[in-house]
Design a protein that fits this description.
Number of helices: 14
Order of helices and strands: EHEHEHEEEEHHHHHEEEHHHHHH
Mean pLDDT: 82
CATH class of the largest domain: Alpha Beta
Radius of gyration: 31 Å
Low-confidence stretches: 155-160, 405-410, 420-424
Oligomer: single chain
Number of strands: 10
Strand content: 5-15%
Strand order of the largest sheet: 1-3-5-4-2
CATH topology of the largest domain: BirA Bifunctional Protein, domain 2
Number of domains: 3
């Protein structure tokens, strides 16, 4: 289970994020412990109000728990994991909120603790929390038999396609998964031994090496978007310059963008637009299916919860009716019969609670199975779209190289013709 955490303030923004239903298909406020308020925003306002009596600005500790893809994790496992982390980090008995999210067929959890101890009016220290969470994460992978990511086995093994939020947003505007672009640039880097070879390899994929204003080397794609080369390669600027030189003789970004715009043909632009239009239509169809499925699942869960609540209230009334009152109740207390009936009621209530939890878990697992099937269709569509757009990038590169070759040949022909006329 991947565990990510941070110390933070601004609890109202966190509350809005955790309660969002536009970005999540399902949301469940599972627990509010140690707060007077019964809603998340009110709870975090309480934490903020108490923190004002201290010098602590990052008064919340926020944690996300993401199980491995394809693995089914029960509520009990999530809660046990949160309890283990709480003990490991020294957050026992601190006010906390637990929220479950479901998105794209996967369920994950969020937990936020108040760091402020109201008795001492000091913040709990979170020293080395990342190292401690990594230890808990490795333990969970081993205990459940999950395949452990190489980054957890050895910190030296990292996904070469990791990207920042800014890189994600930039690539999202282009309709591409940023991992495809990073891997493409990194492949060009591995296959080239110098700047000329690297630039040619990029141009074959519709990308161009240019001189940035402040960021050293940059890459400009066929649409004019600019990317930092060092970020794409996950290298330091000095390491890039060690192979490519200072790059002062390269074209600047503006000049490169003008050259691309001049050479880009309407036909290839039309192909890219057609591909994106087709993808948008297919994605809209899947999106409509997702919306219908989400509404049906929400309705089913609400019906189940309502049915369980009605059953719980009916059984509670029955259990209360078994406890005699008045003189008869006093006699039952004296003889010990009252305690026997009460113990039986408590055991029956526990069984009902466990049965209801099992019914909810079965329904959640079935719904997630349905949603995962739809998500596979989404992934296949996105993969096909990304591959097609990358092929179009290569086509752009081939055409631009061809157009440049024609220009150079035409110029050489003009020079030869001028020389022959002069000789005559």
């Amino acid at each position: 289970m991947i565990l990510k955490a941070s110390q933070r303030g601004n609890g109202q923004n966190l509350a809005v994020h955790l309660m969002r239903l536009d970005d999540n298909e399902h949301m469940q406020l599972y627990e509010l412990r140690g707060f007077v308020s019964d809603d998340l925003r009110g709870a975090f306002k309480e934490a903020e109000a108490i923190a004002r009596g201290t010098k602590c600005r990052q008064y919340l500790f926020s944690l996300s728990l993401n199980p491995p893809a394809g693995e089914t994790v029960s509520e009990d496992t999530f809660i046990q994991t949160i309890d283990r982390i709480e003990a490991r980090l020294g957050l026992e008995d601190q006010p906390r909120a637990i929220v479950f999210h479901e998105k794209e067929g996967r369920r994950h959890a969020h937990c936020a603790w108040s760091r402020i101890d109201p008795e001492t009016m000091t913040a709990r220290q979170m020293s080395f929390f990342k190292t401690k969470l990594s230890g808990v994460s490795r333990e969970l992978y081993l205990e459940h038999g999950w395949k452990m990511p190489r980054g957890l086995e050895d910190a030296g093994w990292r996904d070469p396609a990791n990207f920042t939020l800014a890189e994600w947003q930039q690539a999202k505007r282009q309709g591409l998964d940023p991992r495809w672009l990073k891997l493409d640039v990194q492949q060009c880097w591995k296959l080239s031994d110098g700047r000329a070879a690297f630039a040619r390899s990029l141009e074959e994929r519709g990308m161009f090496l240019a001189r940035g204003d402040k960021r050293g080397f940059v890459i400009v794609d066929h649409a004019g978007e600019v990317y930092s080369l060092s970020r794409c390669l996950d290298l330091k600027t000095r390491d890039v310059r060690a192979r490519l030189g200072d790059g002062n003789d390269l074209k600047g970004v503006d000049e490169t963008q003008r050259a691309i715009g001049a050479r880009m043909t309407p036909a290839i632009r039309a192909h890219i637009a057609e591909s994106r239009t087709r993808f948008a239509k297919d994605s809209a169809k899947l999106g409509h299916r997702k919306m219908e499925m989400t509404h049906a699942h929400r309705k089913e869960r609400a019906t189940l919860l309502q049915s369980q609540e009605q059953e719980w209230q009916r059984e509670t009334r029955e259990r209360q009716g078994r406890l005699p009152k008045g003189l008869r109740g006093l006699w039952h207390r004296i003889t010990g019969r009252y305690q026997q009936v009460r113990a039986a009621n408590e055991a029956e209530a526990l069984q009902t609670k466990l049965r209801h939890a099992s019914e909810r878990q079965i329904a959640l697992d079935r719904q997630r199975g349905e949603r995962e099937g739809l998500q596979r269709a989404f992934k296949e569509l996105r993969t096909r779209q990304a591959a097609q757009l990358l092929e179009l990038r290569k086509d752009v590169g081939r055409y631009l190289n061809l157009a440049r070759g024609r220009t150079e040949r035409a110029a050489r022909s003009q020079d030869i013709g001028l020389g022959l006329r002069l000789e005559r």
